[in-house]
Design brief:
The structure holds two protein chains of two kinds. By secondary structure, chain A is mainly beta. Chain A contains two helices and six strands. Chain B is an alpha/beta fold. In chain B, helix 14 packs across helix 15 and helix 16 packs parallel to helix 20. The chains are: A mainly beta, B alpha/beta.
């Protein structure tokens, strides 16, 4: 089964496999990027991600669309 | 020559602009504080500050504005600002800009926060790179010399990588060794984040912070300022008693009362803007988005909407303008509709006055309740009309010490739009009401307000207001004036009846509820019309709020009896 970004727990790292939206590339999220989930907001959203010195908040719905590999 | 500043949101572009042009303009830590492009002069050169963009493909309003500008007014040179701590992502835009073939330089901001800077960046990209460190931070002359040299020697950049953003990222990963952020800064931010973004602790701190801000603004400093300033209009009005003929006296006194009410209230609002500016400048606002996302999501909004809504506590006009940072159009429309429910500062004197009549010893609680009532009603309305989720993609900036200069620029920017409104709409409303209440319908001068045109006009909507017990003309007239500016409600009320006699405890409650929910002022409606581009939207909002306020006031009368 394919794993998506929202299945990661705080502190886990994964490598991005597939990104659906070009908007996310502009923010530096491309396949091959290693991201770490720093924390998850109250109520399970948003995801606080860290990659290449950049911190990003992402809502749960968007995170479910990003395929990752541990 | 024309130069254009282009860069990602939050890349320090506006700081460079301010320094080049020394023009007042606000600098922020929240992505996309500059939405319209701004112009400034530096010697004989014209400098344009475009909104922050991630790419040259239009995904948001800001990107559209920027791209439109670059294609319709090709500049002589581009100054591309990048944040070195986010170099990888910033260079996507740089590579896209290089495809335009316009001479450009790179200004690398926040270099002092990084170690192992890629000093060979200049050779790889083939354009001059200006590293901004603490010691050489402000060197506009050097910057302009660099870009001028590029133009004079006809050295447009060579397109290094054409293709999608993804291909550009691969190119960047292959060719450029990225700098590393100094650990001390990151650790500090992480440590603070662990505390401030904690689901429980963080929320508690957020609530405490907001409570403190409201307490300081409205309870501690606000009344003190009002007391301090309130004496002067009264003294001036007494002096104006000497003026002849009576009509001129009426106009003068109307103007004094009008301006007086603005000045009483301005310090309170400045203070609120100032506190919100501190939150935004130090980077805390984005953490508020993080903590509020799950709540806002329930109402079909993203955490990002919280910023315009908070500004709405000051004045709805800048709040509506600040919704431009929301990329999603439905999100934006929804946030705009919610802003009038976040009681603007101008309604505070109304609440204060009514609360002192209802129960003087619980005045602060009643004001707080009025605020909550309005927010809750607004959120319920928003939830009822909502389906689906709002996306959120927001960069989390590191914490920074707020700089007084930035705060000043920001507070001044927001105050300006309020003062403009105050001195046009408010002054005219105050003078017109003053004349209306001193003239009889036969256009004779009268000292008895009950014989005036205003009393005569207010009898028309009286049957409409009878069920909610607000059919006294002295109560209706301020409500009508309040449609133009909420500040006028109390000032008109005080002019008509200095002792506030018609405002008995019995009618005070429906009056409070009606004031809390009835349509936003004409200035707000005008801005909404401009921002949404539809004439129907403000009209619909007006009808909706009238019906809502009427319904809730009716409910209040029932509860009261």
């Amino acid at each position: 089964m394919k794993m998506t970004l929202d299945q990661l727990k705080p502190g886990q790292q994964a490598v991005i496999q597939r990104v659906p939206h070009p908007r996310l590339w502009m923010l530096g999220l491309s396949p091959g990027t290693r991201v770490e989930v720093i924390s998850i907001g109250p109520g399970g959203t948003p995801y606080h991600l860290y990659f290449y010195g950049c911190s990003l908040l992402m809502d749960r719905e968007t995170a479910t669309q990003i395929e990752v590999k541990l | 020559m024309n130069f254009v500043l282009v860069g990602n949101p939050n890349s320090g572009k506006t700081t460079v602009f301010n320094h080049l042009t020394r023009q007042r303009q606000h600098i922020g830590n929240f992505p996309g504080v500059t939405v319209e492009y701004k112009q400034g002069q530096c010697g004989n050169d014209r400098i344009i500050d475009l909104p922050g963009v991630y790419s040259l493909t239009p995904h948001s309003n800001e990107e559209e504005v920027a791209i439109q500008y670059l294609t319709t007014h090709p500049p002589d040179g581009i100054i591309n600002c990048v944040d070195v701590t986010n170099l990888r992502r910033s260079l996507i835009l740089t590579l896209s800009l290089m495809e335009l073939g316009i001479p450009m330089i790179l200004v690398a901001n926040m270099a002092e926060e990084c170690s192992r800077l890629p000093e060979n960046l200049e050779q790889i990209l083939g354009i001059p790179v200006f590293w901004v460190r603490k010691q050489n931070r402000w060197a506009p002359a050097v910057l302009l010399r660099l870009i001028r040299a590029q133009i004079q020697q006809h050295r447009p950049p060579l397109p290094l990588c054409r293709g999608s953003a993804e291909q550009k990222l691969y190119w960047i990963d292959r060719h450029i060794t990225l700098p590393t952020r100094k650990m001390s800064n990151r650790q500090r931010t992480q440590r603070l984040d662990r505390l401030l973004m904690h689901p429980l602790g963080g929320t508690a701190i957020l609530l405490a912070t907001m409570a403190l801000i409201f307490y300081l603004t409205f309870h501690f400093f606000g009344p003190w300022f009002i007391q301090f300033i309130d004496r002067y209009p009264q003294q001036l009005n007494a002096m104006a008693e000497e003026i002849e003929p009576p009509l001129l006296r009426t106009l003068t006194q109307g103007a004094i009362t009008g301006i007086g009410s603005i000045f009483c209230f301005l310090p309170t609002m400045l203070l609120l803007f100032f506190f919100l500016a501190i939150l935004e400048d130090c980077g805390y606002t984005v953490r508020i988005c993080y903590l509020c996302q799950h709540i806002m999501d329930r109402f079909g909004l993203s955490g990002k909407s919280i910023v315009p809504l908070l500004i709405g506590f000051g004045c709805s006009v800048p709040a509506v303008l600040s919704t431009r940072t929301l990329e999603d159009q439905t999100q934006r429309a929804k946030t705009i509709r919610l802003i009038p429910f976040f009681t603007c500062g101008a309604k505070l004197p109304v609440f204060g006055t009514i609360a002192s009549i209802l129960a003087p010893e619980h005045a602060f609680d009643i004001v707080l309740l009025a605020y909550l009532l309005s927010i809750i009603v607004g959120l319920i309305c928003s939830a009822l009309t909502t389906k689906g989720h709002a996306p959120l993609l927001l960069e989390l900036p590191p914490y920074r010490m707020p700089k007084f200069k930035n705060l000043w620029h920001r507070v001044m920017g927001q105050t300006k739009s309020f003062v403009q409104k105050a001195f046009t709409v408010l002054l005219i409303t105050a003078m017109v009401t003053a004349v209306l209440q001193k003239c009889t319908p036969q256009l004779n001068y009268t000292e008895d307000p009950s014989q005036s045109i205003l009393a005569y006009l207010a009898t028309f909507p009286a049957p409409f207001f009878r069920p909610i017990k607000l059919d006294h003309w002295i109560l209706i007239a301020p409500l009508i004036a309040g449609l133009f500016a909420k500040e006028s409600i109390v000032s008109v009320l005080r002019v008509l009846s200095p002792g506030l006699a018609p405002l008995t405890p019995e009618v005070a409650l429906p009056f409070l509820v009606f004031c809390a929910l009835y349509p936003p002022c004409s200035a707000t409606l005008t801005v909404i019309r401009k921002e949404t581009g539809s004439l129907w939207e403000p009209f619909r909002l007006f009808l909706f709020h009238t019906a809502l306020a009427y319904g809730c006031a009716l409910l209040a009368t029932f509860i009261r009896t």
